[in-house]
Predict the 3D structure of the following.
Amino acid sequence: MPLAERDAVDLEPSESRRPVDVAVGVLIDADGRFLLTSRPDGKVYAGYWEFPGGKLEAGESVEQALRRELHEELGIHIGAAEPWRQEIVDYPHARVRLHFCKVFDWRGRFEMREGQQMAWQQLPVQVAPVLPGTVPVLQWFAAERGFAGATH
C-alpha cells in the first residue's frame, strides 16, 4: 500500500496530514520559457496544469526521484537539477511538500507517456486552470523577472 494511503488508514488524523515529499522539475529553456504539463485523465485535478514531477520513493533523494519521474512521464533524461525552493500545499486529498528544482539541461524527445499535454509558457501563462501548487512558482518567477503583470 502506498505510504499516503497507509498514513490515512493507520495514523491519527493529525498524523495523516504529514506531508508527502514530491520532486518537481521546473524546466527552463534557452528563451526563459518554462514547461507546464496537464494532469492526465484519471488523476486528481485532471486537466489542471502543473510543473512535472512526482512522489519520492523510499530511499530516493529529490534529484533521483526527479530524474526517474521525468523519464517515466516525459521520456527525457535531465542534467543537473538545481534545488530552488520548497512549498507545502494542503490539498483536500493530500498534504504535499513540493521540492522545486530548476532544470536547464535535458536530452531526449518529449513523449507524453501518461496522455498529458505540454506547453512552454512565459508570464502570464496562457493555459488554465493551473494547480494551486503551481501558483507560488509563477509568483517567484514574477518576482525574479521583475514582472508586474498577472502571473496566471
